[in-house]
Amino acid sequence: QRALNQMMGGTLKTKKDLSALEITLDKEPWMDEIPEEEMTEVQLAALQEFQAKEKALAEEQDKYRKQLDAELKRLKSEVQALFQQFETVLKELHHQRFSHDAKFFCQELYCVRLQLALLQSVEDGLVLTQSTKELEDARAKLADAEATLNEFSAKVNNKRAKQDDRVKVEKDIGSAANFRQQFASSGLEPEAIGNLLQLFRKRRSPERRASAGNIGTTAADLAAALQGGTAAEEECPDGIDDESFQRMLELRREKLAAEVEVQKGAAELQEMNSLLMHFESERNEADMGCKQLQGELEDHSQLMQREEFDIEILFKLKQGQVEVPQAAVVTDYSDAVVIDNEVVESRNRRILELGKDKTNTLETIKEFRKKLSLIQWEYKMLQFQRTDLEERTKDVHMLRVTKGLQSLLKGGEEGRNKADADLLERKIEHLNSNSAQKEGAMKKQYSAASHATKLRKQENAMLEKKLRELQQNVIQREHIRRLRAPQGGASQGGPQDGEKPRIIGGGGRIEENEGQIRAAQAGFREVKTRQALMEAARKHTEEIEILTKELDRLRQKTFPSFVQLNEDRGNPDHR
């Protein structure tokens, strides 16, 4: 680095490789130390040569700098153009990427939907198989329930037939005709037979009937109940032999046994009926389940048939062409309908044709009503004109002819109108001349007031200048007086008349006399009041003069007169 700085000046470039801005001229020290007047001819020649080289180098550097600026502008413009071109290409590629991504996403979505359709088809097949199996199980269960029901119904029917036989037998045994027939050959009197019949029909106590009516009673219990009932009966009544009485008891035991059998059969039949109703409810439930499964299977089969031909297709539609109400999160398009543009356009054309026809009809109706209204208006106008002409004719017929009207009809009115017109013309000329005179007078008055105002302004300016000079003189004299005044304290009391006021303190404040101040203020107020009164009197005088002239003008306008009033009423204060 040190060798490079010493030998090459800190750079590897030669003088030929240096640009105009990198070239520097080394000025010799004596050129700055020796003035030009003391230089020799050789030194002057060397100085002029250096200055020429320096000027040439500056021109070369300026030229090179301009060249570099032009090159920089050109490169900037090229960079800007390339930047815009790159932005355009990048934007186009960005759009193409979005477009291709949208196509890829659509295709992926279509594949996903197809996969879902396949999975749905497999699931539907499994559901169909399961439903078919459940339907077969339900049908088998229904068949078993129906077989059980039929078998048990046959048993119930048999039991009911047997019960009917028992009831018939019990009625035959317990009937009065059968009882009397059993004692027909016994030789007993009817009254005795009636007494036996009463004993035969006599019911047992509730405890015995309950024990006898128990469904779970065995044959031994039944025999014990019958023996107990026989032993507990009362004794044989009078007039009846023992054989007949024993026969009645035997018949009574048979009747009781038949009643027990009937009650037992009724209880069994009741239980069998309840069980039969249970079997029927099971059969009905199985039937309803079977029908429900059959309906579900049919619905599922129809759904599979529809889905077999219901193929999902992706459409790319513009946002303005989608008229389905949008949901907050996901819009359901399951019940949407895709309509061709031609269908919508044909409907629109038809609507426009119908609307145009209706518009034409309304236009025709409007024109017809317009013409009708115009005709009615013309008719009413003609009626009014006829009425007006009739009224005018009546007025002419009823008009009273006077001398003035006769003269007017003869043409005498023209002369009078001409005289009035001449009078009005003269009056207009008089008014114009009077207005011109007043205008001239007012202009003169304005110019005089302007001149007086200008003079007053000049006078005020002069007085203001004198006032400033006097104030300056007063300030100077006060300063001189303060300089000449003794340094001792001021005497007590105010200054006497004719004496100069004394200075109080070192700030230039003078001694004040309250009496003189009040007198000066009173005189100033009096002068100011008199000046205000004079100004008000002058304004009132001018207003009175203007009102007097206006009054004369109004009088001349009301009562025309060709005598011009030139009397000048002066102000009494000016006399």
The largest sheet, given as strand count, sense and whether it forms a barrel, is: 2 strands, antiparallel
| Rg from Cα | 75 Å
With strands numbered from the N-terminus, the spatial order across the biggest sheet is 1-2
How many β-strands, per DSSP? 2
Helix-strand sequence = HHHHHHHHHHHEEH
Principal-axes geometry comes out as: elongated
Mean pLDDT: 78
As a percent range, the share of strand residues is under 5%
Helix content: over 70%
**How many helices?**
12
Low-pLDDT stretches are 205-233, 487-494, 560-569
Head-to-tail CA distance between termini: 117 Å
Helix/strand-derived category reads mainly alpha
Protein model, in words:
- With 575 residues, this protein is mostly helical.
- Helices cover 76% and strands 1% of the residues.
- It has 12 helices and 2 strands; from the N terminus they run αααααααααααββα.
- It has helices spanning 2-8, 30-33, 41-174, 176-182, 190-201, 206-213, 219-231, 242-309, 341-398, 403-410, 413-484, 514-558, and strands at residues 503-504, 509-510.
- A two-stranded antiparallel sheet has the order 1-2.
- β1 (503-504) and β2 form a beta hairpin.
- α3 (41-174) runs antiparallel to α8.
- The longest helix has 134 residues, at 41-174.
- The protein starts with a helix and ends in a 17-residue tail after the last helix.
- Residues 205-233, 487-494 and 560-569 have low confidence and may be disordered.
